[in-house]
Amino acid sequence: MPGPGSVTIRRWGLGIGRPAFVTLRLHLTSLEGVPLLALSSATEREWYAAAMRGSGGRTSIMQSYGFLRAVLNTAVRDGAIVQNPCQIPGAGSDRAKERPVASPTEVVALVEAITPRYRAAVLLGAWCGLRRGEVLALSPVDVDLQAGTVTVRRNRVELLESPVAFDAEPKTDAGKRTVVIPPHVLPVLAEHMASWAGEDLVFVGRDGSPMRGDAVRQAFTRARVRAGMPGFRFHDLRHTGQTLAASTGATVEDLMRRLGHASPAASYRYLHAVEGRDAEIASALSELAAHGDAARLPRSIVIKH
After folding, report:
1. Does the annotation count 277 as an active-site position?
2. 240 with 113, same domain?
3. Active site residue 131
4. Would you say 124 and 185 are in contact if contact means Cβ atoms under 8 Å apart?
5. Rounded to whole angstroms, how far apart are CA atoms 20 and 17?
6. DSSP per residue, 41-87
7. Do 37 and 105 have their domain in common?
8. Which of 238, 239, 257, 258 is catalytic?
9. Using one digit for the tens of pLDDT, what is the confidence trace for 14-47?
10. What predicted TM-score, i.e. pTM, was given to this entire model?
11. CA 2 – CA 238 distance, rounded (Å)
């Protein structure tokens, strides 16, 4: 029977669950079959350098490195290896990045520039703070137009190297949440539900199949060019929503609940959102959309992914 040191990274990391499998498939394919004892500091530095030279997203590469380091830390604790070879300073850190924030006027420009089928997706990202995967995983029962809420229960996961896609639970319990929709967004969402929603999913392609993330990306890329916002990403809508909500007076805890963030630090755990506060934030966001002064909004903000 092989010793623990001969077990591969893939087998050692299986206990972490499906998100771990996705991480292995995205960035760690060249390492997943390597025995633990054969993985040296030189090997992991070579992998990291190659990944950073590639076309993959920097955040996901850093997350993959953090996952690899966590797996090997477990192997050290279990006595499978003596020392963790992942020693690159800061390689697994989720560094702050400066990203643009759109004004209410710019959000309107994006909505007007994009194909109508995708307008509700843009608004859910900008005014409700939903991630693209969360938008694509919505089912009709998740949208309550009468109550004016959208409930996030799942996240669409798509693998870069294959057409495989599946719905997974959010990474944290905080990711499962019900968000009050700003009133000015409801008419567009109602139109979408009546005209383009499918039976099982809110966002579907023209053939009725689940909408692909790449279809949203391509439509959004065309729209941002028409709107004069080159370089603005769909994920930047989420940062925009966070900033606009904060400008209405939302507290840190309000934002964490609205965006599905887990507590960032123990020092914030004493903050408690008052029940009903999310509805107040949603109404204030519509007021900002109608009367917002773009000059009062920052051009960029330092955020944590």
Report:
1. no
2. yes
3. yes
4. yes
5. 6
6. HHHHHHHHHHHHHSSS-HHHHHHHHHHHHHHHHHHHHTTS-SS----
7. no
8. 238
9. 444 444 445 555 666 777 677 777 878 888 888 8
10. 0.63
11. 48
